[in-house]
Amino acid sequence: MQLKFALMPALLAGSLATSSVLYADETADTIQAMKKQIEELDQKVRILERKREIDVEATTSKTPTGPRVELGASGLAVNSADTNFVFKIRGYMQMDGRFGVGETAGPFSDTFLMRRIRPIFEGTLYRKLDYRLMLDFGSGITSSASNDGFVQDAYANLRLAPEFQIQVGKMKEPIGLERLQSGANLLFVERGFPTLLVPNRNVGAMLQGDLFSQVLSYQAGVFNGASDGGSTDFQAFDAGNAAGRLFTTPFKNSGVEALEGFGAGVAGTYGRFTGPMRSYLSPGQRAIFSYVTGTGVLPNVLADGQQWRLSPQGYYYWGPFGIFGEYVLSSQDVRQAGGGVSAGAKATLANRAWQVAGSWFITGEKNSWKPVAVNEPVTFTSNGGWGAVELVARVQGIHIDDDAFPVFANPTTSPSSAFGWGVGVNWHLNRNLKVSLDFENTDFTGGKKNPITGNNEQVIFGQVQVSF
Amino acid sequence: MKLTAILLTGAVLLAGHLPGALAREIKLLNVSYDPTRELYQEVNAAFAKAWQAKTGDTLVIQQSHGGSGKQARSIIDGLQADVATLALAYDIDALAEKGRLIPADWQKRLPNNSSPYTSTIVFLVRKGNAKGIKDWDDLIKTGVSVITPNPKTSGGARWNYLAAWAFAAKKLGNDDAKIRGFITRLFKNVPVLDTGARGSTTTFVQRGIGDVLISWENEAFLAIKEYGADKFEIIVPSLSILAEPPVTWVDRVVKKRGTEIVAKAYLDFLYTPEGQTIAAKNFYRPRLEEIAGKFKSQFPEINLVTIDGAFGGWKNAQQVHFAEGGVFDQISSDRR
Description:
The complex is a heterodimer.
Chain A (H helix, E strand, L loop, with lengths): L1 H59 L7 E5 L2 E5 L6 E15 L10 E15 L3 E7 L15 E11 L2 E9 L4 H4 L20 E11 L4 E8 L16 E9 L8 H4 E15 L4 E2 L5 E3 L11 E18 L2 E16 L9 E16 L26 E12 L15 E14 L4 E14 L10 E11 L1
Antiparallel strand pairs in A: 1-2, 2-3, 3-4, 3-20, 4-5, 5-6, 6-7, 7-8, 8-9, 9-10, 10-11, 11-14, 12-13, 14-15, 15-16, 16-17, 17-18, 18-19, 19-20
Chain B lengths: L1 H14 L9 E9 L3 H19 L2 E9 L1 H9 L6 E3 L3 H9 L13 H4 L2 E2 L2 E6 L19 E2 L7 H17 L4 H13 L8 H10 L5 E5 H11 L4 E4 L4 E2 L5 E3 L1 H7 L2 H10 L3 H9 L3 E2 L2 H6 L9 E2 L1 H5 L2 H9 L4 H9 L1
Parallel strand pairs in B: 1-2, 1-3, 6-7, 9-12
Antiparallel strand pairs in B: 3-10, 4-11, 5-7, 5-8
């Protein structure tokens, strides 16, 4: 019994010790399990929070599903969410001043005028079909049965591939280099003599494209026929021509900067044209050469048959410097349609014109065929710059076929040739605002009884251009 | 009079050649992929200094970063990137094919297929490597949480995916069904798909999610440099992939903005000893042997497959794995 009592505490102590060890093990396991559970829950919470964070980021940077409207220096653009449909409103206005000075002879209308007022609507349908409508409400624009001058461009271009595009509508025929340059991007206020001998805008259809990573471009089309410098959107006479142009920038992707800006090409038309022919204008926009159009004993002269043109052309740009040149030979069968001793006389007359023009951005901007990107544009705020300043110069000439005189043109009132030079400065304040000041001098050979060509023409041009 | 005119014209034209155009400020935008922030911060500072010394012009280089595929789409949609420095050639190909912003042969314009530096894919684990991760097949084990971005938006993620695929192909004897099963199990272990590599690093390092981050090698080194070797460690798998991030100038943009010369010079700088040293210091593997030699001890030797050798080039890899309805889409639907 005593032993029993003596063992009792020992057994109790042993039992307690065993149970406390067992209890301690169980607690440690439980704690471990709970710790693991907490860690798993912690991970789940962290994952949920991170996913929410990513969702918020995605929402804030999500591509919009509705149309995107952009208004900026390039005008107004509306894009569909998938960018397959685009509509843009752009335009430009040119406010000119034109003043005869110095040796200028004959009547000269010193005037301010709105040279061009051109709203432009353009865009894309189904990603592939581009369209453009450009109107003009500038001073002196008229509409006639054969041409609506208020509609300058109205065409659609289907871009099946960069190499193969089909354009139909009223557009510039692909001939004259300077003619193909936008009216908002000219070096001088008025284009040079070669533009007088190439057609302007005609209705037709054209294939065009860029080949070999834009190293070679081509255009080939058929158009209503037009006299030199003319536009038509209705064929009132027996006429029509095929036009083509090949232009290469062979070093475009060469990596040699001094060569990348070189381009050269050739363009031409071949077809028929009958009907009255336009006068050729001086830089001051006065008629300096006209075929005989008088009444009475003097006959009228009409285009009457084959017409073709050939124009080699090229440009070179390197850094702030640029130069371009073009030559145009325009041949036209003509006939005296009036009475008199020369009635019924026919001839093929080939007139020629050329120009070389250069420019230099003294503020260092990169020169190119396209509009300049101004380094430090005027923003009309304290952070703005002074814009880009470009000096320009050109020489140019035009020669009328000797066979034109005296039967088809009067040598005493129409000059047989003219030579001109001009200098100027363009201040591109920013991409929207440009101010130009030019001086042009033109000497005439022949036509001395014409009060306009009896002496040199010297004209100062000023222009303020606002584009958007 | 004619002589005067010709002389005058000539004088103006000649004047164009005269040096001394006024010093100016030029802005350049580098649109890059996610983990290159630090690399280009350093490159930009060094190049701007060199450019100013050479030309007098002040150069302000702006950076934009995001998932490589997403960045490419932004450029196509109109982001005015003078240069694109993306994670893989396929994304830059898209600038040529979809955006027509650069010529198709852009990759031939700079040395080494226009990739001035390389990288590869490694694992970043928490110090101690509690899950005992040593190779790709450890990533498909139950209970292992893997962090990698979304291959649909991230170039780095596509490299990750292809490296895993190459390992599985080698281990499973090119059995397509088994490889797909391997990749499916791997992505079942991914709890969060970020849009870019930097996002995944944030998820793993800062948010503390996951056991292992499949990462660009440079990004893994950077995490250790920034957060300490006492917190993370790099695990080099038995096989990985040679990642060649390419660079290009964006022709249409630089021509429009007049930044062609400086953009080309900027990318040329990446190939110079100075540019290569900056790349190596930022844990990108340099191409220049003399610089690679100097930093040899920094980069572990890894058995690497190439995109051309193992997948027939990026075009093929993209079409098979990442295009709409491709393998990744299929395993993603399995994953759900």
